[in-house]
């Protein structure tokens, strides 16, 4: 059953990158444990070429998943890598990290997602981590004539490369054929489906590209393409943390006092030393 449906809204971030904000916008705030979901999609380099110059984070995880184009990551811990079409990068900011995400192309289509996932209070000041997962490391499952890429979590005996087991976190990229597809639920309280290509019937209701559906926790997800055009969705599921959320831009903690401390640490150049 679809609980509510929402359309992403235009936004800008970084040095002026144009994107669509899907989660953490006026009609759809935090979806615990998911703090934010952005889609960036343009073949006009003026929309993305300025990228995301160095900026700090604390208290959560970022996950970047690319459909087209190339984006380079560099951070203050010494990690560097390029995520390309079909690949994902996972960064646990935790106690603090400063990173940059910059296009590695001057023209062509840049298309992908960035997801922010909250951390429980006990992990917010743990050590920062980063991992690069190229396209060939992401398992693909065939369900009827659909292709399911398992980016995070467990499904049908397969494991995605990104794991946060305590949250039963699941992320799938599902490219539909013409046959219906059923994806069973594992009972995660937060279940979301975002249509990023074509029109898709979700449990009988048709959603258009750019719409997200909040789903009941226990229903099997029934998907079917609603037209000749290619249809694809991102599926997210996870267990809520259930703790207070305090956010100021790139810092996500539990209290305002912790946010103020994060700002002081950043200004003093000790974000990662706290």
TrEMBL record:
Gene Ontology molecular function, alphabetical: metal ion binding
Please provide the record's keywords in A-Z order: Iron, Metal-binding
How, per the record, is the cofactor bound?
A: Binds 1 Fe cation per subunit.
Residues binding Fe cation, per UniProt: 55, 57, 99, 101
Q: Which Pfam families match?
A: Pirin (PF02678), Pirin_C (PF05726)
Domain Pirin N-terminal, first and last residues per copy:
18-117
Give every Pirin C-terminal domain span.
Answer: 188-271
Question: Which InterPro entries does the annotation name?
Answer: Pirin (IPR012093), Pirin_C_dom (IPR008778), Pirin_N_dom (IPR003829), RmlC-like_jellyroll (IPR014710), RmlC_Cupin_sf (IPR011051)
Q: Which family does it belong to?
A: Belongs to the pirin family.
Protein name as it appears in the record: Quercetin 2,3-dioxygenase
